[in-house]
Amino acid sequence: MEQNDLLNERTCENTIREFCKERTHNHANDSEICEKKIEWKPFLRQVLVCSSVWVSYFMLGLSMGAPTVFIPQIKKEANSTNVIDQEMTSWLSSLIPYSGMLGSFILPALSQLAGRRMTFLILASSSLVGFIIFLVSTTIRDLLLSLAMYGLLVTSSYTILPIIVTEYTSPRYRGIFLTLKTASFYWGIWASNAIGTFFYWKNIGYFGICCNIFVFITGFCWYESPYWLATKGRYKECIESHRKLKGCSSDAEKELQELLDSQKYDSLEITSDNPNSKLWKCRLVENFIKTMRDEQYYKPTLVSLLLVLLYQSSGKMACTIYAIELIKKITDSESTAYKGMLILDGVTVFGMYMGCISSRFLKRRTLMLCCSTSGVFFLLILSLYLYLIKQGVIAESSVMSILLLTFYQLSISCGPIMLASSMYSEMAPTKYMSYSMFAMGFFTGFVMATVIKNSPLIFVKLGLHNAFLIYGICGGICTIFVYKYLPETKDKTIHEISEYFKTSRKEAKELISRTRYNRNKIDKSEEQM
């Protein structure tokens, strides 16, 4: 085993040495060719991969938004509100994230063993089965089964899909690509609600199947992730895939060398800590404990879970799922409730694009904190306003209520919703990706499902004013912790972000500055050569 480990180490070193030699002698010519002739090809390959991911988020939005509109339609068809009681309504609305908790056990291992491309195709297959069952469903049990089939998709939205965007795209485009994916999710909810408002609810299934066909076609055209190839020791394929996806510009070559160097050090650490590789693989419990204690794992993972908690505890998803019931209680009008639902969905999507534009000028951390604080402020104002109405201090105004809801949803859309999964994908530790994806997927599914499942009970038992007060307090507490622990990730490579969690904040900044200074010196020396 020691000989095999040494052989793997030498293979990694030889690959890096060959890469560095090639870069030194041919970098100038390669860069000139890339920049003048084929720079657009890597960009289009990145767009192809991201378009598949965006449509996957759109399909998830279709499935998550479906219960909002098919439950009222089924009640009207049966001419009875008892055909789906309050308990079943909450289960239909929360079953997708609950089933996603099971997917958190499957996706990390599948992604590690089969790679990103094959995992993505399996995700597309599961969602296709879900839409087909949705289309042919005749009973509530059929609908429950179809919703359960989307569990892998909702888990992937916080695990493998943002990881794919991060690994397949250049840092230059990564931010905008990551923010657009969340907008696609809410476009899907808006489309689902619009179809259910104006047409028969099963048309959502036809739309979902068409999207699935596009995902399958584009998914088969992908290259495998260079990061996954590097972790498997397939360094030549890693170099080829990286250059196909990101080109051979100076920035892309630096990122590639950082990837190969980091993989070399990880393999050396595993070899030195575990002389008998076969024996070590049998010690799963020992390896798990060691991983949990490694700050390179638990620091970025805990910060990512904090972002998820901020997003879900602010109540945005619950307000989206139960939008019709909420607005109906405020306005006492069913037609206004449907119109208000579509307007709020449009505001959410608009907020996403505002966030995309703002992220080009503001740092991610700054945008997250500003929007979170603003969202908490409007939640507390809305809670106070509804309380004063209940006490008879002021007269009720449906316009004012919807306006406050709009400002609240706009603030949360620009920040926590748009940036939560995006920043996780940037902070996720490459060395412990499987463990990180499991923690993220399981925690996200549990928190999302629990909030959605219990929100109707909170609305009825405590009232809307207390519900928004609880959301505001929880969001405010999470925002304080985000201010203390969230690092800045904009315009940083994955390696630079990981260095932040290895050291203290001051040391990380100094290390990143030295790294960039050394890079500039290398570039100047190469230009002189």
How would you characterize this protein structure?
The structure is a single chain. It is built from 24 helices and no strands. By secondary structure, it is an all-alpha fold. The chain has helices at 2-38, 40-78, 86-114, 116-136, 140-148, 151-156, 160-168, 171-198, 203-219, 226-231, 235-246, 250-273, 277-282, 284-293, 295-313, 316-321, 323-331, 334-359, 364-390, 398-427, 433-462, 464-485, 494-502, 505-528. Helix 19 (364-390) packs antiparallel against helix 22 (464-485).
What's the SSE blueprint?
Elements: H1 2-38, H2 40-78, H3 86-114, H4 116-136, H5 140-148, H6 151-156, H7 160-168, H8 171-198, H9 203-219, H10 226-231, H11 235-246, H12 250-273, H13 277-282, H14 284-293, H15 295-313, H16 316-321, H17 323-331, H18 334-359, H19 364-390, H20 398-427, H21 433-462, H22 464-485, H23 494-502, H24 505-528
Helix pairs in contact: 1-12, 2-3, 2-7, 2-8, 2-9, 2-11, 3-4, 3-5, 3-21, 4-5, 4-9, 7-20, 8-18, 8-20, 11-12, 15-20, 15-21, 15-22, 15-23, 17-18, 18-20, 19-20, 19-22, 21-22, 23-24
